[in-house]
Design a protein that fits this description.
By secondary structure, the chain is mostly helical. The protein has one domain (3-289). 82% of the residues lie in helices and 0% in strands. The chain starts with a helix and ends with a helix.
């Protein structure tokens, strides 16, 4: 992995941890919260994506429709599972389990199906990163506010969604050579459009309205809308030059930031174990770069 690719992935990891903290703080209907930040992301990024597309001479093709459409489906499933997990379990369990399951499945698929060969030391580094994530995820279970099994289940479902969209998006930006900014901006737009009928139904049902969710969680919606797309565009750029089997584990270094902030802000337990997990993750990243 080149220094540039590593820098992109590490910055993305920090941004990812920060927007997940905002998602954990959100209150109200989870579906409407996800819908709102997809709408805001589309409003921010679609004009940028169209400018990039125009400067490239408007290279329209079926890939530019199919790629973002499939990605949008995977991202919606991931986003709803993640938000449901945050509403039902501790951040310190859901986040590291999700971020650990995702790269584990991604690396296995990349090695066994895609035939990627990142090298013995780098592949071992990926496993070390995952071991560090496990160390963070299993600490302080008796002191958690919710049953650990609930967080593990939602985290694993979320991780499966991460693996699905990571592998698909890697295919889209490498094999099909789609520009990451345009690709992701179209995906955000399709996510917002696909979720709009459900948002309207929920608002009409009266249990929660889009307006009430915006008033209660407007700041969190704005944070996720800005940081989530920015973090993932950086990851897509890194994927253009680096095998996904290396990018996927390295980007999970954000669980170090997320887990420590979960302890600091939400008073979740066992900071020493989380620091040990952080050290293991950093050692794994060093092996990946070597």
């Amino acid at each position: 992995m080149t220094p540039t690719a590593l820098a992109l992935v590490l910055v993305a990891a920090v941004l990812h941890a920060l927007w997940n903290l905002a998602a954990k703080r959100a209150s109200g209907d989870g579906y409407l919260f996800v819908w709102w930040y997809n709408v805001a992301s589309a409003a921010l990024w679609l004009p940028v994506g169209l400018v990039v597309l125009g400067r490239a001479g408007w290279p329209l093709g079926w890939e530019l429709l199919v790629g973002p459409a499939v990605s949008a489906a995977f991202h919606i499933a991931y986003q709803l599972c993640l938000q449901a997990g945050y509403q039902r379990a501790d951040l310190g369990v859901v986040y590291p389990v999700a971020r650990g399951t995702g790269p584990l499945l991604t690396v296995l698929f990349a090695l066994l199906v895609l035939g990627e060969r990142p090298g013995v030391v780098a592949a071992a580094g990926g496993l070390v990163v995952i071991a560090g994530i496990v160390a963070v995820a299993t600490g302080g279970a008796r002191a958690l506010r919710h049953r650990p099994s609930t967080g593990i289940a939602w985290g694993a479902l979320t991780g499966a969604g991460i693996a699905a969209y990571t592998l698909w998006d890697d295919h889209a930006v490498t094999t099909w050579a789609l520009a990451p900014v345009t690709y992701f901006s179209l995906g955000c737009t399709l996510q917002a459009l696909a979720m709009t009928p459900g948002a309207l139904r929920r608002s009409r049902a009266g249990a929660a309205t889009a307006g009430s969710v915006l008033r209660r969680s407007g700041r969190e919606i704005a944070i996720v809308a800005v940081l989530s797309p920015l973090a993932y565009v950086l990851v897509l750029e890194a994927m253009r030059t680096t095998p996904v089997a290396l990018v996927a584990p390295a980007r999970e270094s954000g669980i170090v930031v997320g887990s420590l902030l979960a302890w600091r802000l939400f008073r979740e337990p066992d900071p020493l174990r989380r620091l040990l997990g952080a050290a293991i993750v950093l050692a794994g990243i060093t092996m990946i770069v070597a």
